[in-house]
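Hello again,

I reread your note about wanting to compare the complex against the isolated chains. To keep things tidy I'm splitting this into two emails, and this first one only covers the full assembly. Below are the input lines as submitted, including protein chains and any nucleic acid or small-molecule components. They are followed by the predicted structure of everything together. The single-chain runs will come separately.
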Amino acid sequence: MGWLQKLKQGLSKSSQKVADSLKSLTSLSSLMGASKLDASSIEEVEDALIGADLGTKSAARLAEAMRKHKFDGPVTSDSLAAALADAIAEILRPVATPLVLDSAHRPHVLLLVGVNGSGKTTTAGKLAQQWHQQGKSVMLAAGDTFRAAAIEQLQIWGERTGTKVIAGDQGGDAAALAYTALEKAQKEQADILIIDTAGRLQNRTELMDELAKIVRVIRKLDQSAPHDSVIVLDGTVGQNALSQVKAFQQAADVSGLIVTKLDGSAKGGVVVALAEEFGLPVHAVGVGEGADDLQPFDAQEFANALTGVADRQD
Amino acid sequence: MFETLKGKLQTVFDGLAKRGALSEADVDAALREVRLALLDADVALPVVKSFIEKLRNDAVGVASLRSVRPDQQVIKIVHDALVEMLGGDAAPLNIATNPPAVILMAGLQGSGKTTTAGKLALRLKTRERKKVLVASLDMTRPAAREQLRLLGEQAEAGVLPEADSETPAQIAKRALQVAKLQAYDVLILDTAGRLSIDEALMAELRDIKTITNPHEILLVADAMTGQDAVNTAEAFHKAIGITGIALTRLDGDARGGAALSMRHITGCPIKLGGVGEKQDALEEFDPARLAGRILDMGDVVALVEKASEAIEAEEAERMARRMAKGQFDMNDFLTQIRQLQKMGGLGGLMGMLPGIGKMQKQIAAAGIDDSMIKRQEAIILSMTKKERVSVGLLNASRRKRIAAGSGTSVQDVNKLVKQYQDMARMMKKLGGKTGAAAMKAMMGGGLGGMGGGMGGGPGAGVPGAGMPDLNALSRGLGAGGFGKGLGGLLGGGPPNGLPGLGVKPSGKKK
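Full-complex prediction:
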């Protein structure tokens, strides 16, 4: 199954909901034959978007855009969904940027940060697998020295993907481990070093300081590192994602995001709010537990899936 | 958020000249703001809708109280409705059964099942003295079993040995046998994270349920979850019939609206809350606290309510009059101490303030606790009536007698007298002021003085260093005096004023 099918399948429940709301509102008799939406329909559009985690602000903006939208002929659920999808895709298109390796860096350092349980270690494993398959030399650094068995978890990914894992002991200094790993990666002229870190809640100042220290320390070896500082967001997360991105941006100069667990009933609509608020690149989406289940983020497809637009041709 | 909801409600009601009953239009305007606040807190839309409907019925026509502003009243109505919806009282785990009691943990990937299983093992072991066995049925995530083994060992609980090539159902069966044979009280089954739409994996959970017949099936969910919380909770509940919810990452800054959604959709109580990364950071869930948090306002409503109950108007008047005359004796001091106690003691008072949890260790280390207040009360009660009115009588032998009578030491008595004198000195300075101002200052200095005494620091009881005027605080909820009030309550410079709660004599004035 391709990622698109998976994403669609996963999003189908949520998109069903958005699509259903759109259908029910366009069946309103007051709307039939009109080429503009009335106030109550606008409200329903807004509600449907809020229900997909877009947040009240983004939802209101999009609903407003739909209010102004001039439809060709009478509004139908399909034309409304399509217009909505286009409006969302327009917001997302500028941020849909895959991870690009800069071969000038040896290694290209990728730092993975985020709150607990968002999927950092799994994402590290998936990325290692993909780059390894592309013939790159990849190294993993087990920077989560806090959670029980986090190191073992990454080591198993290392074995699966044939990637070298630099690990210390549980309870050890994560910054020191990152430093050692970068030293080794530089010495071995690895293409990529992926540094996994412990999950931390963004309001825990001391833990965020610890993360900032990791960044400081690796910059001693390579001023330009990390070349990508990626926050891993759980696709089920709500409006707290905004607070997460903001805090991690401050502590670790976050340069982009990866959204995980989008194969479930979660909508991941907060990505739209994030794009509007921060404009950070969305590099990839996680749609399953297998190594191949990390896929580039496609704005139009994501928007289509979210609004229930069936396979449209661009 | 608190500022915005508070501010918006205030704006809504500013036009309200007379304080009659709340009109429908007032309520509508307020409810629009409440709706937005709830949605921003990730409460699911259908839940918000039914909640707002219920609120509308509660709010329209409620007679405005003399001393409470309409915006405060609405906040209180919202708060109470939230608490009710969240389940009112705490719901303990149901493990009182013929052992072993089986607890099944289920949930999405990364919700915190394994960590919570480890925490729960420790909690049941240390608090309830249960013999606990943990078993991981997670064959999917790499090193998940290893993680549970380490956590189980840290909790000194039994850990089911791993065996390869077993299905989760087979492990469950074996775990139950081991638990029975080795007379464990509780068996905690950790499972792999799964999506609610994954039919095969949900069927697997049903099998595990059939095999082990669990007494508790806990849905472990992340407090940061968005609108999807309803789908997840509903799907898990339908598939396996959960008995409760464990909400993780409550120590984050998420507003936790998901809790309300899940509770509402499943009707199942939220039983446990994860409040930190350490293994003992698992608490019984407190609906009132989360309600305050969804509104992002601590338990301010409760604080205001308790404060206004505790300080009866006449008492305040009487004190104010005495103050104006520069009279302040041990009886007045005693009144203050008792008021503090009525508000739930220091612990209660501090528990109501957001962000205090983390400081509890420091507070404990500084030796500030309610027993201190009790001791101070005992000392005053051991004085004769004459002594209470004229403290000058207290010579060495009287002090010795008081110490013996109250079960304290002469040093304790001295400390209290010193505190009293500091406070009385301040009262005199304020003697010229009007009653209300003096009362305000007294509340400010009075309890601050107590804090100082409790910490035992020199120079305690500095004017303005302690409790804010509680009347001002209740007004402040509507009038923007909130930040200032809390700062004062914490004994000085907000927001990190807590250590100043009499521990550091430096907690003078901001």
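For quick reference: The domain at 3-95 of chain A is CATH 1.20.120.140 (Four Helix Bundle (Hemerythrin (Met), subunit A)).

B.
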